[in-house]
């Protein structure tokens, strides 16, 4: 697997509690990792937990404008070989598919992120909604990639399994490696 510079975008879904495990696995695989989290993500996982998993501070809307005058969304987009959004909520995908950029993560994706990999996690009804399907199709049309969602029990009080569960950590890490490998293959003459 090709190691790379990975920006993990954490959005505000219940599956955000799994993000530190994904971050840890990426680092164990040799990737350099930075984290950008939405404000909603902090309802489900503390900023400090993400920082410990990444081994550095978390990039947020509060840190968006650097004291040097540079703006983080441009710096992060240029730095990252791949932006992994895990978990990716229906809202985050919808915002990206219509070009919204009023938070650090969505602005980073708009600012020229080279490769974007979405790891969706949401209620099965949200995943199967025609709006979500249209947004996924739009993002795929732009070359964005997806890993999951998987079928299984949801983290909420849902008793029945369905498609919408965040892909397993190992599957996400493997998808990152595949995306990085195809990126270098695609760039070859």
From TrEMBL:
Q: Which residues form the signal peptide?
A: none
Q: Which domain of life is it from?
A: Bacteria
A GO BP entry is:
coenzyme A biosynthetic process
Please provide, in alphabetical order, the Gene Ontology terms of the cellular component aspect for this entry: phosphopantothenoylcysteine decarboxylase complex
* One protein family per Pfam: Flavoprotein
Domain Flavoprotein per the UniProt entry, residue ranges: 5-176
Q: Which InterPro entries match?
A: Flavin_trans-like (IPR036551), Flavoprotein (IPR003382)
Instruction: Show the GO MF annotations.
Output: FMN binding; phosphopantothenoylcysteine decarboxylase activity
The protein's name in its UniProt record: Flavoprotein domain-containing protein
What species does this protein belong to? Rubrobacter tropicus
